[in-house]
Specification:
6-stranded mixed beta sheet; about 110 residues; 4-stranded antiparallel beta sheet; mainly beta
Length: about 110
């Protein structure tokens, strides 16, 4: 069973950028990967998804600011986050079908 591990979170000022990584323990070439996030006091919400064929989709709140991409040779999916806002503060998770949730990576946007 493939496992996914998130990394790359941190503290950034509003307007800043971060790149999150989702590293797989095995091949992801045939997998779709989805990023979710959970803000304090809120339920987990969809952020972005990339299919095995490279097709992408985004939640409206991040479209135009976030970019999801994949590097199958490195078994890694990335989430480039630009123009970050305070409301992007959350724990970010990546997952796929039949893959257990990982610990996530904390993103804090604050001045």
């Amino acid at each position: 069973q493939v496992e996914l591990v998130e990394s790359g979170g941190g503290l950034v000022q509003p307007g800043g950028s971060l790149r999150l990584s989702c590293a797989a323990s095995g091949s992801i070439s045939r997998m779709f990967v989805t990023w979710y996030r959970r803000a304090p006091g809120s339920s987990r919400e969809f952020v972005a998804q990339i299919l095995a064929n490279g097709e992408v989709s985004y939640d409206g709140s991040v479209k135009g600011r976030f970019t999801i991409s994949r590097d199958n040779a490195r078994n890694t999916v990335y989430l480039q986050m630009n123009s970050l806002k305070v409301e992007d503060t959350a724990v970010y998770y990546c997952t796929s079908e039949n893959v257990p949730w990982g610990p996530g990576t904390q993103v804090t946007v604050s001045s």
